[in-house]
Amino acid sequence: MGFWTLLQVASMPVIQVLIVGLLGAFLATEYINVLHADARKYLNKVVFTVFTPSLMFAILAKTVTLEDIISWWFMPVNILLTMLFGGLLGWVVVKVLRPKPHLEGLLIAVCATGHLTVSCLRNYGNLLLIVVPAICKEDGTPFGDHATCGSIGLSYASFSAALGSIYIWTIAYQLVRTSAVKFKALQMAEEASKLPNDDLEATQGTLLLKGDDAQVQQTGVSLHSANDLGEGKTSGCTKVMEVLHQILHELTAPPTLATIFGFLFGATTFLRNLVVGENAPLRVIQDSIALLGDGTIPSITLILGGNLTQGLKSSNIKPWMIVGVICVRYVFLPVIGICVVKAASSLGLLPSDPLFAYVLMLQYSIPPAMNIGTMTQLFDVAQEECSVIYLWTYLFAAVALTLWSTVFLWILS
Has this prediction a pTM greater than 0.90? Predict the structure, then answer.
């Protein structure tokens, strides 16, 4: 595959994201004012509770079987390694650049997570689901027959998307939540320092009942418990119970729960045949869920574009922070990915299919996961900064992905 052809393939989904994001920014301007702050907040709730869970269930129930889960066991390990190395590099960026506390979790999260949560019906806005089948159609690739390569590549990409969703809605979710706790605690401390002690408790209650903070309460965040932890007032047993409760709460978040059910239906032949296929008796349920899932990526992108309008005016993100994220995602992680995949291949941990190794490498070079924007909106923290980061990382994505795809193909040829 030629460089310019690969550049065109890699740039198409990125350009789509940028176009829809600009539309969201235009709709959020004071001249149109359709996608104002409240509209973005309520649309984000729909994305979190309806669109994203539908998307993940539709992908898994249709494309992933029990045999796939068993034979592709290294893929979840690889995605976990991408998040581990990306998170460590993001932590270094935070320590070097010292951003404000509410930005720490965001920077680590965008460094750790790639764009894996996607729409499969229209192949919209997803790099893996567009790039992999497109490369399979080209002559001279090391992936064999075009039709077989495209079918298997789509399954690899879908499985990767589903696994990424689990990690995103647990690990990255926790990072953004922690930043929200710090931000709300600082707000409360500032309010408390301005009032007499008699008014402190009333001030805390007012902050917790604010409309913007209601979402934090819904996701299990308690500022009182955070203060108690800081003062050492809770026992060890209570701390353990709180951690277990938080883990359980994150695992039962709608996107994660839908992913678990998607794996269950995809891996169980009886359940799969109920909803998937032209002769499935409950096919209408799968079709309806897939239709809802189609709204995920456009909605997220519109929200990010709307936040960008305000972000360009008032965000606290510094240029060096953006440079740090770009270097982590497009320079250091791909190099680490090559080393990890080559080492796993030499140890005999991977299937013989070179396309599998290509997808594993590609997971290290894709832009940040867009669902982090949903989380910042959900917790009402760093939405504008998140949008600015996405603007620049996606501007660089097409060229970076093209260069690294060429390198990966050369290594595997």
Answer: no
